[in-house]
Amino acid sequence: MSSMLEPRGHAHRVHEVVEGRGSGTTDLVTSSWARCLKDYHLDPDKPLQPTVLAERALEERRKRSADVIDCAKLEMTTLYQQLGDRESAVVLVDTEGTILHMVAAPEFAREMGKVGFCPGAVWSESTVGTNGMGTCLVVGEPVAVRQQDHFFGVYTTLTCSAVPIFDPDGALVAVLDVTSRSQLMQQHSLVLLGMTAQMIENRLIDLRFREACPVHFHSRPEFVYTLHEGKLVVADDGSIRAANRSALFQLGYPSVHAIRGKKIDEVFQTTLADILQRSARSSFHPVPTFCTQRSNRFFVVAQEPATLSVPSVERAGTRQVVASLPPVRGPECAFGDDRILSQLNVAARVIARQIPVLLHGETGAGKEVFARALHKGSPFASGAFVAVNCASLPESLIESELFGYRAGAFTGAQRTGRRGKILQADRGTLFLDEIGDMPLTLQARLLRVLDERQISPLGTEETIPVDFQLVSASHRNLPKLVADGVFREDLYYRLSGLEVSLPPLRERADKRELLYRVLQEEAAGQRMTIDPDAEALLMSHPWPGNLRQLRHVLRTAVVLAAGDRLRLEDLPPALRQRIAARPEPMAVPPAALREPEAVAGSELGGDSGDDELAALNPVQASERAVLLGLLEQQRWNVSNVAKALDISRNTLYRRLHRLRIPLSHSDFPVQ
Ligand SMILES: Nc1ncnc2c1ncn2[C@@H]1O[C@H](COP(=O)(O)OP(=O)(O)OP(=O)(O)O)[C@@H](O)[C@H]1O
After folding, report:
1. What's the CATH number of domain 209-302, 3.90.1570, 2.40.320, 3.30.1150, 3.30.450?
2. Which burial class, exposed, middle or buried, applies to 349 when counting CB atoms under 10 A from its CB (0-12, 13-18, 19+)?
3. Tens digits of per-residue pLDDT, 598-633?
4. Which residue of 70, 79, 539, 603 has the lowest C-beta tally within 10 Å?
5. Distance (Å) from CA 140 to ligand 1 centroid
6. Which residues on neighbouring strands pair with residue 418, listed in sequence order?
7. Prediction ipTM score
């Protein structure tokens, strides 16, 4: 790569600026150049490339930052798509400057690899001089390092924007960076980067405090459940354990340490139990409350902890506990991935209150399977599950398909008329797949049906009341469609009572479990083994077509396999060609989408007072099985089980009660 100034000319300028004889840089860059010369003794005439760690050392560092990577991956993919620049890369670096994860187009990644910009490379300021990632780590605030701002001339074709990511303790844990060839994008990318960092930080709070109640608030109700909301996590006893940036800002606390440990009623003029109760009564619409300090009014929603706190595999000290947990399964499909299970859990509660659920996910990621699982576990499970693919129907047919028509309503109509899909889904679930493809004119009609809960088939004046649960799905970016004016904003908000993102197969924690499960299904129940090299290949493949593609590959492989053993040569040649190649940084399939957080939740129907085990939905049944397994293993010692799950005894007792697990103890507390 060539620099814009001759390398020597650039080096000369660096010296001049640091010695106070040159100008044209920001204070941030001048200070960084001074550090490079005086503290790190770097010579701008002798450019250095970053050290690239060996695979094992990189894995070690990834393990250390596993939860940050977990929270960042999907957001990084979204950011990459929002930037829409194939000559850019989005990277996450740890506190030492090591690139842990990178999202880039393969061609750009290859080219960047030549200057040592690849996973495992260490971009600290002290080794490669001024650069977005390394300099951001030093100053701890957002930085933009334009082309000529780099210390070494070899990097002056690049522009970096970087922002720090802080954990719930306020410690800097990573830096998110966009590096691009374009000089123009930095302002734009800094804004998007800042938002992405905030999303990652919010996710980190959720992940680290899953056993606590999330409390969402804002002074304006429409901002609750958005990136601007304040978020607190509150333990059973009402004490605040963490707060996001917006919460600190809105409540006027300088840092998380200033608010941590305070009781929620020291902050708001109410208790946790009261907010929980009022939130449930309002179907999780924000309820007003006042701040104790300033008599400001806020709108608040509190939720019960979203999941049974199955600890993350990576969390230190919990590995054994996880390994010993019985596998968590959904009703008819493998949902061993902790995140999916948690989403299923939240979505089950939401759908039970007839709040629409919107699923995102790449093609073949299992959106319909997830929707069916939701239906099966819902109060309308005895009704029909009616799926409509809005993309596969011609525009002219969607209307009659959805709304139905009376006999003779139009030329070609069936003589008997037709009951539309919406009516078929009465007391059941309507699944609108590829909702982004619904024509604008029909969007208005659908919105009316959702608002009025009644329908008028084509060619009739009559209105028929209808009661159904709605799940919609799209692999397209609906907010973008809204921005482009092809999707109604009001419908988008109506559909997205809860947004759930299904991770692509390559990112699922239960990938191996799924692999064997699909194999067993395709082998019609016959037990099959997979040779280690074939398994390694299947596990490392990026699967752009997700579970559907995996199923097709295994379907053919099972036919080709000799007996009950699946060998490498049974796999398609295109897959085998990847072998021995070092894994590429992830190339983003064009249709991949951002995975927004689950944004609403409500109490499970289990608290309704119905004591029948049959009343448990499949998600609760899975939770129940996990708990029973763990209780058994810990010889029914409640303290040990609570400790193993990293939740309080009270929380555990409440869960046991809700999941109808009786204890012999007479002091079984009931909440
Ligand atoms: N959890 C799962 N366990 C086993 N198989 C699954 C699971 N999820 C999805 N599949 C399989 O993957 C395939 C695609 O699933 P599904 O139709 O639900 O994906 P989708 O995301 O709705 O796809 P599209 O975006 O194309 O509509 C199906 O063959 C399904 O059986």
Report:
1. 3.30.450
2. buried
3. 222 222 222 233 344 556 665 566 567 667 767 766
4. 539
5. 42
6. 405
7. 0.98
